[in-house]
Write a structure and sequence with these properties.
Layout lengths: L7 E9 L6 H10 L5 E2 L12 E2 L12 H4 L4 H16 L17 E6 L5 H14 L8 H5 L3 H10 L4 E3 L7 H14 L5 E8 L4 H9 L29 E9 H6 L6 E10 L12 H13 L7 E5 L6 H15 L7 E3 L2 H4 L6 H15 L1 E2 L15 E2 L5 E2 L6 E8 L3 E8 L2
Parallel strand pairs: 4-5, 4-6, 9-10, 9-14, 10-12
Antiparallel strand pairs: 1-7, 1-8, 2-3, 6-7, 8-15, 11-13, 14-15
Helix pairs in contact: 3-6, 7-13, 10-11
Length: about 425
Amino acid sequence: MSSTNHTVVVTGIGATTPLGGDSATTWEGLLAGRSGVRPLEGERFAELPVQIAAFAAVDPGEVLPRPLARKLDRSAQFALIAAREAWADAGFTAPAGEDAAIAPERLGSVIASGIGGVTTLLDQYDVLKEKGVRRVSPHTVPMLMPNGPSANVGLEVNARAGVHTPVSACASGAEAIGYAIEMIRSGRADVVVAGGTEAAIHPLPIAAFANMMAMSKNNDEPTKASRPYDTGRDGFVLGEGAGVVILESEAHAKARGAKIYCEAIGQGLSADSHHIAQPEPTGRGIASALQHLLDTTDLKPAEVVHLNAHATSTPQGDVAEIKALRKVLGDDLDHVAVSATKSMTGHLLGGAGGIETVATVLALHHRVAPPTINVDDLDPEVDADIVRDEPRPLPQGSIAAVNNSFGFGGHNVVLAFRTV
């Protein structure tokens, strides 16, 4: 790596998920192996073939003032809540400029969403049809824009180094964090608020995913429906929420005396060029992303002791990911404790990379890997050490962890973190 590259660290975390309204309760839920999946309620969901989802444990309307909440899509509400927690956790007490520890021109915001303000779009179309043109909210366009969450977080913290929204389906949140790492490494910013958010629990997305045969229809046992690596897995469970981290140059963090969770080593990127929705069955593209990470950073396979897998609970995708890991890591995969936290949170689409990065950072910080639940009959093709049912301690000394995120369109993003 070039000597001009800045070392990047994580100094703050925030989350609101199906397991809790903040990062602490989410982490407690992950370690406890608690599922956030529950039945859908209400007449508008009644005819759907899928009757389960992982709603946020704390509704954003309970947290944000009503005048603010009504101007934000639900995805932006989640992002703002998670960003506020992360900002405070990093030790900042006011927006950039007001807090002298960071100048606005040195602060960025990169918050991604795979779908954007879909509930706003669909709900306001219903308003148009049922109540007429004059009843459509004047806030509709800013609310439905995919860059709305990042823009609102940028406004909240007074970010002027750049406000960005990479969109790569279910890899979006991870790509946002990777982009933020590069912003700091290249010298564009000293601090970046980064992560992912999603709020798409609505009849249309659920019906569409269900008709693609992508979602679990295990409606009778909601908490057991998301079952990565189990032979009985039949698709993902849709979740909602956000995960955000504060990334900072190590020099800037140390200068202001900030606590440091871990180092953000870097990212690996690739594309499958295989199918718009189906995973490439051999894991070729995933392997390329992981190899790209190893080739462009100082990470060594022997350092990696934990992996938060993409593992959505789909028959093809779970196995392809493991094949890719084995291809690149070889025997080193044997000492990697693999966790699939979607077994508890469901799949947050563009928000997945955000909350799973938070989980990865906390796993390193506390040196414990959260469990994967619902693996009653491990698929024999899963050639890896899956952490099942109970948390597992991680080794002492300098260790690293990887977070995988992949998306429709063949997007592959691999992030790596290391203890400091």
